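Weekly structure sync, notes
Attendees: PL (lead), two postdocs, one rotation student
Agenda item 3: pending single-chain targets
PL asked that the sequence for the first pending target be pasted directly into the notes so everyone works from the same version. It is reproduced below exactly as submitted, 392 residues in total.
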Amino acid sequence: PPLSLLEMIYLNQFWEWLTPFYPLWLAPNTITLIGFVVITWSFVILLAVNPSCDGGAPGWWLILAAVCGFIYQTLDGTDGKQARRLRCGSALGELFDHGCDALTSTMYAVFSMEILGVGLDDAVGIVFVLNAQLAFFISNLTLLHMGRQEIQLLDSQEMQALVQVCATLKAFSRDVFYTHVDLPSSFLQAARQPWDTMTRLYPDGTFSATGMQIRVGFVLVGLVMPVQHAAFTSIRILRHYRTVPDEIKALPGRGVHNFALQAAIMTAWYAGCLVIYLHLRVYGHAAIVCWLIVSMLGFGDLMNRALLTRVARRPLPRSAVQYAGVVGMLLLFSASMVKQRVILNWLPRVGYFGAAAACTIFYLTHVIEVGNSICRVLSVQWFAVPEGGKKE
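Predicted structure, written out during the meeting:
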């Protein structure tokens, strides 16, 4: 794929320099897995030390997040180069890499919420998460419909680098993003009514009669840019089909009608997650954290199924539960209904965590089943380099 801005400036050169240091026995999927475990570790620690993700995490976690983010970004950027170096790239590696990236897109959105002090209690933060999922989904659909992933000048690498820098800045200056900046009076007058509304909604000083805190600008960019990215990418896909032969459009999952269906499914997932969140947020942090886990895994499941359409050439195994996210959301909703009707306060909490655990099991079961099926078809292993590939 084409390179983004930071990849052109230094990232791609750094990854090219680093890859030859990897031993020849180190499988690309192992590199992907290590990076995913590292970033997930920092994500789990955040939910443990500050489950509300509202800016209260200690400084050491911010440094940890920056370091883990850099490690993940580096390993994610070099796993494909290691595969080309060893000549062992496969459909399994593509699915595993993009499947992990789908999950980390949610994690990075939560990191951004914590750094900017938005929090899981604020619906703006949840839209932050869902917008990140939307942009990732549409961007990766270019792999299916155009045969290559479309990369913009400012893309995921720039987002990851920005999160790393902002986390480091906040670790050394807790109030750096809470600094108030005055805005031109002409702007305030033009947006007088919505501005006054925001000032009333956020009486803590986030907005004032003369301006706003710096973090608001970052939040607005985080809300707008993913939608803009998804819209422009959708236009590229639709334009692509103007010149594509009919036999390509007839392939499974391709064509304008299939793209419209996939976009509609993602939109329904977005709306469903938002509705369930608005229902659950009155039941405390346990319910919201479990919602976040189910949302992340459900989106990963949805993304995996879209990407499978690109690489599958024969029927894949059908899991007992086909859509982990939908099942998880329904279980969360059911647990909240129980809370309204029982005296035992601990029972709904068990239901929330049970829903998250069930969603995790269903997701992992489907991933392992499909991965093993691909391994059998291609005669490869998850985390081993084929004998023929161990050479420079």
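Discussion points:
- Confidence is low (pLDDT under 50) at residues 314-322.
- The first helix runs from residue 5 to 18.
Action: rotation student to compare against the earlier draft before next sync.
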